[in-house]
Amino acid sequence: MLENYLPIVVFIFLGLAFGAGPVLIGYLLGPSKPDPEKNSQFECGFPAFDDSRMYFNVRYYLVAILFILFDLEVAFVFPWAVVQSQLGWFGFIGMTIFLSLLVVGFIFEWKKGALEWE
Amino acid sequence: MTSAQILFYTFSFFLVASSLIMIFAKNAAKAVLFLVLAFFSVAGLWILLEAEFLAITLILVYVGAVMVLFLFVIKMLNIDKSTLRAKFAGYLPLGLIVAAIIVAEMTMVLGHEQFGLNIYPAPEKASADYSNITILALQLYTDYVYPFELAAVLLLIAIIAAIALVHRPEQNRKKQDISEQVSVRAKDRLRIVSIAKNNKEVNND
Amino acid sequence: MGFWNAITNFITQTIPWFDGILASIIIILIKAFALIIPLMLMVAYFTYAERKVIGYMQLRLGPNRVGPKGWLQPIADAVKLMFKEIIFPTKADVYLYLLAPVLAIAPAIAVWAVIPLDADLYIANLDVSLLYILAVGSIGVYGIILAGWASNSKYPLLGALRSASLLVSYEIVIGFALVTVVMIAGSVNLNAIVEAQKGSILHWYWIPLFPMMIIFFISALVETNRAPFDVVEGESEIVGGTHVEYSGMTFAVFFLAEYANMILMAILAVIMFFGGWHSPFEGVPYIGEFFSWVPGLVWVLAKATFFMFAYLWVRATFPRFRYDQIMRLSWKVFLPFTIAWIFVVALMTQLKIGPWF
Known about the structure:
The complex is a heterotrimer.
Chain A: H1 5-29, H2 36-39, H3 58-111
Chain B: H1 3-24, H2 28-48, H3 52-76, H4 81-110, H5 112-115, H6 132-140, H7 145-166, H8 178-182, H9 186-189
Chain C: H1 2-14, H2 20-57, H3 73-82, H4 94-110, H5 129-137, H6 140-151, H7 154-185, H8 190-196, H9 210-223, H10 235-238, H11 248-273, H12 287-290, H13 296-317, H14 323-351
């Protein structure tokens, strides 16, 4: 089994090299004429009013939390999906209970308006 | 040293080193990235133990989801470092006590008596057609179906808690109601006024 | 492993002292370059195809100046980007700023290790290769978040925030949609999933999972930031999104990652729903045997080309969605529907309906 992971490791390093390589080539080949105007952050024709690190709507945070929870559910459902034909009706009922609890949470979320974007 | 040992020590080194950098990093975003590296090292260690499903799930859930949330939080909080420093000294004694308790507990649990090689011998090398995920699934959804359902309850509680903590119903929000838009009829929006035909007073000049 | 074995045998026979872990790494590297270099060429000519196809759809000619019919255009673009200055914004966090494109492309390359392009044309055969793709694919979000954060500029930050929320929302949808495939195939190994679709065109999973296929395709559009869901870039709203502060090769790397992901998603759709390397004429009398000599790679690429064309077609056809509409689509339409479809598939497998189970 472990020998299957050798190509994975090689590919991860290759991926990093394919990211770093072109940037390095561009850095070596391209000109470098820094200019305070050019290096300033992009704005629509006037200097920036304030720092760009600003506060955000808490809704994005909620999406991230809900994503973690649903991602965990996906991680639970995948092994079941592999063996569900072997498990038969027992597995079916087990997953029905599991997913119904998820659906209860989902309905709660929907009714509370957590999925609304204005 | 066998190649497995070399790999083990490499992953362990990266795990310990990246965890330390994570703790001491001043920039919160860098701390998160080193935590990601720590998770990758742990995944490598788990793959050495032939627990490939768990290793991949660790990446999927922790690196792909939890750390993304951390980056979100870092982006949103405009952390003022000086106040953090000021509070650090105040929390130090309490933190040290908690750390000491954790270390004591870990040594008790992970000591020779409970987890030595004589109690849990190293697992045998799996055969070529061994499928980690199938064996795990056949156990999880039959013998351990009760804890599995409890996990669902836990996740449900987490969903409700997250909404209770974060979600605030806002007043006068402008949102789109698609069904209302679709079901609108011309006569709701448009009033057709009939104008008398020979209206002499209107002069179009 | 016909083709790869031939390479391995050739090397081990010509150089007898060549063995051990270093030898296997070198063999993997040779295989990897045999995969990645054609992939990069495909990416380059995909951008050309995009400009041409959309050009013709909008009654324009598209690029036609560089080389015959503009065939050298992608090469010219690459060379030009190489000689452009890489700008380091004064307020940016330089290390994270340079790390972001690397983190964007590394997962886009790393997933290709497990993609089977033919019955014996793959580099690694993991038992959990589908989960590996999902796990590594989810790391792509870091590239976008870090690009937005490290640039320390408003438009990238807004773009990153929007994009990250979108990507994570649709990752769940893709996860649940692929669960249905795994349920029928009974495996999370891509080779086994394709093998389970053997038989004829009717055995492919696009019939029982037709809605899931549509959902997967639309989610793939979102995951790769394609129009009509490209609010990340959204020129009219936030200029260029996360890429605003990037120039020269740093921008090109983001671009490469995006197009490599598009090709990946097209091939993944083929593997999941369209029988991978199996010929569409399989099981048909006479015609099936007539086409049996065609290598599986050709079928995979032919089917993937259809999806890649569909990406361009969609981009030329639809106007951009509004952000709240995309979020609504994922959480309120796709997610409930995929969960319901898991039940449908579970019932179908338990009652053994159709030739798929």
